[in-house]
Amino acid sequence: MNTSSEPCNISDWLRLEATVKASVFVVAFSFATSTTAIIMAIVLHDLKLQTEIRYILLCHHLLCISSYCGLGIVFQGMRALQANSPLLICWVVFGIQLSAGEGILFTLALMTLNTYLAICWPLRSLVLVDSVKYRILAGMWTIIILKNVSLFLIDGMRSSPVAILKSEPVCPLTLNGTVSRVIGMVFFCLPLSVIFISYSLIYQEGKRAGHFNRSNVKARKTVLIHLVQMVLHVVPTLVIIGLGKACGTFSFALNMVLFALFALAQCFNPLIYGLQNRELQSRLCHWLCCDHMVNSRAPIETDTPALRVHNSSPLRVHNSSPSGHIR
């Protein structure tokens, strides 16, 4: 679009970038929200699942993904349409989206840490985690919100009240100062360190117990899927931060490819950490099978008791299997 002899108009590139990102966010939001709704419906309909920390963390994680993508549509849409929004509104929308994005990584770190404790310390972790699970979640959100509010206040002190309330055609990105970048990288690397350390300890424990031998293809496949998922989370983010914003077709195309990979990882999070879970799969199958059985039995509900018992017996027989799965 630009040649080397033409001046660089960064605002045109930012608007085009915002248009593409808003479109990608729409797709990611639709897919992530639909799968999140299914998983949360399963959890909310089962009292046992509602009390387990892994499903509480999973629901928080999925809500963060949906919120992040939804707010991404709003923020990038404001930039693409040149909505002339006040700078304060841009900061608020971007700050909430940033908090949701950090919540994705922090809840993922807590999920991984909880898995490590459940595998390596199964007896001690149950009592410990149940006693502090809500405090940990409250502490996590308190730290994230206080950090972002403090950084926005620091950036806001550099601008006058008139400039903060002034309308901007393209919402500018904030938190680009040195202090903000350093703190942001700390909050990015801290949960990543917890995730990778927990995964390495889980792998060592599984290898010691013989779960990662050559015959156990499923265990090795699960580790590989989670590793690829983490790479799609981390690598695009680091490269985008390192490249920054620049004019030119190559820079734009590279940023969009990296962003698409990151958005793809968000879309598949509900499937990898949610519907791949055997217990959720069994609940979903049970839910669907029960609806199918009720619908198929509805026309003959007034028949004899013996016939009704005969029609409902296959579901009870399948539920009594030792694995607890519906076959």
Features:
single chain; 327 residues; mainly alpha; Rhopdopsin 7-helix transmembrane proteins; 2 domains; two-stranded antiparallel sheet; 11 helices; globular; disordered C terminus; GPCR1_Superfamily_Member; Olfactory receptor 10J1-like
Explained architecture:
By secondary structure, this protein is mostly helical. It has two domains: 10-276, Rhopdopsin 7-helix transmembrane proteins; 283-327. The chain is built from eleven helices and two strands; from the N terminus they run αααβαααβααααα. It has helices at 10-44, 47-50, 53-80, 87-120, 122-156, 161-165, 178-209, 217-243, 249-275, 278-297, 305-319, and strands spanning 85-86, 167-168. Strands 1-2 form a two-stranded antiparallel sheet. α8 (217-243) runs antiparallel to α9 and α10 runs antiparallel to α11. The longest helix is centred in the N-terminal third of the chain and has 35 residues, at 10-44. Mean pLDDT is 77; it is low at 1-6 and 298-327.
